[in-house]
Specification:
Elements lengths: L1 H5 L7 H24 L11 H31 L6 H23 L5 H26 L6 H28 L7 H33 L6 H23 L8 H23 L8 H12 L1 H15 L5 H37 L17 H23 L3 H26 L11
């Protein structure tokens, strides 16, 4: 397993990768604190300062920073060539690390002047640097890889998402678009959700899940179908949205997206069936659970066209849809994959050169499984309760569930920082 992740000439330095993980973990903690402080925001209209702030803290600080860090580690593995530039990766980190809090503050205080604008510019600069680094690395590779193509295409959709986001921020104070920013909000959101998160998560997970399950299953033809279906869904969605077609036409991207998710679920099922390692550890269980959790936002999404056709689109359905994405399958897959990848990075940093020279711990011994299990229990209780509270407009249940999600975030941070500050002389956690 360790050699499976690091069979490249020069692995990306842990000094480049690990700050992204630390930042993402703290962003999750901040997001859940904001969640506890604003339960009533999730019982009203989805367009309000608190939900916008939390959504961007989760989308940029949690999901995007985590994925940027992971991709700097994984792309060299997939292309079998070193990362183009470690310095550019560090520059990308600092630009985003400064820009994201400015954006979150701008939405939280609803001051869409210089804080949000400066944050948007910095985040766009970060993504531009990341895309350049990614393209240069893949272009220098002699091996074409479907997973790397997923990641590259997702990065381009991310750049489109952040550019549109910056235009929307400007449009709030100085109208530069034909319509108000709220009209384009759905376009901005779905380019990020489907084009960036979904495309990249599927591209990475379709490589990592079989690897960690030690599965023989591989099906590039099916992955190309998934890749095509997601991009068809995105392009058709953009076309329908910008041309103001009847809401019934949104079924086209919906069907294409449903096909891609069903195909990915089948891919994961086959990888699970053909696994060599029959025992499945806790991080893999929550990673596999995240595949099932992808169905929930799809159900909400399929409800929306029917509701839009009838002239109704309950805010609670839209709110539940967003929460099921950012606090649902995205958070679940990150929870699982964090403790399948970071322990290997830390192990490689401290013990790779010492392997074969004496006894060394296993990567799984570098974090606390009981703490991980506690995190999973608080997370599942909080997520289910939060969705239920939104659907039934129950502020008390939302508040209790938000506290449960906060406890999950605290335990996640405990384990992550225990890994990041690992001391080879300390050994296995006492908990």
């Amino acid at each position: 397993m360790i050699t499976g992740i690091h069979t490249i000439h020069k692995p990306t330095s842990s000094k480049v990768v690990l700050p992204f993980y630390a930042y993402a973990a703290l962003s999750l903690l901040v997001s859940t604190l904001l969640l506890c402080n604003s339960p009533e925001a999730f019982t009203g209209h989805h367009f309000n300062p608190r939900t916008l702030a939390i959504t961007h803290a989760m989308a940029l600080g949690w999901g995007t920073m985590m994925i940027l860090g992971a991709s700097h580690q994984l792309v060299p593995v997939l292309t079998e060539s070193p990362l183009y530039s470690h310095k550019l990766a560090v520059v990308s980190f600092y630009l985003a690390a400064i820009g994201i809090p400015l954006i979150v503050y701008g939405f939280f205080a609803f001051e869409l002047g210089w804080p949000a604008l400066a944050g948007g510019i910095l985040v766009n600069a970060s993504i531009a640097v990341y895309v350049f680094n990614l393209v240069s690395g893949i272009n220098g590779s002699k091996k074409e890889n479907i997973h790397a193509i997923f990641m590259l295409t997702a990065a381009l959709w991310l750049f489109a998402t952040t550019i549109i986001g910056l235009l929307l921020v400007i449009n709030f104070t100085s109208p530069i678009l034909p319509k108000d920013s709220l009209h384009y909000l759905s376009l901005h959101a779905h380019l990020g959700i489907v084009g960036w998160f979904l495309l990249l998560v599927i591209g990475v997970a379709s490589r990592l899940l079989p690897m960690f399950l030690i599965s023989k299953y591989s099906n590039n033809r099916l992955l190309w179908i998934i890749f095509g279906a997601i991009n068809i869904a995105l392009i058709s969605f953009v076309f329908v949205h910008l041309n103001n077609f009847s809401n019934v036409y949104f079924f086209i991207p919906g069907i294409a997206l449903a096909l891609s998710l069903a195909s990915f679920a089948y891919y994961c099922r086959m990888a699970f069936i053909h696994r060599i390692r029959k025992a499945v550890d806790e991080p893999m269980k929550i990673s596999l659970l995240s595949v099932l959790m992808m169905l929930l936002p799809v159900l909400f999404l399929l409800c929306l066209p029917f509701l839009l056709v009838t002239g109704e689109a309950p805010n609670r359905i839209i709110m539940a849809y967003g929460v099921s994405i950012f606090f649902g399958w995205l958070t679940a897959i990150i929870f699982g994959m964090t403790f399948k990848t970071v322990p290997f990075i830390v192990w490689n940093k401290f013990y790779h050169s010492r392997s074969g020279m004496g006894k060394t711990p296993n990567p799984k011994d570098l974090f606390s499984v009981p703490v991980f299990n506690g995190m999973g229990i608080f997370y599942l209780f909080g997520f289910v309760g939060f969705i239920t509270g939104i659907l039934f407009i129950n502020t008390i249940l939302i508040r209790i569930s938000a506290i449960s999600l906060l406890l999950a975030a605290v335990l996640y941070n405990w384990n992550v920082f225990h890994l990041l500050f690992h001391n080879p002389n300390r050994g296995k956690p006492a908990i």
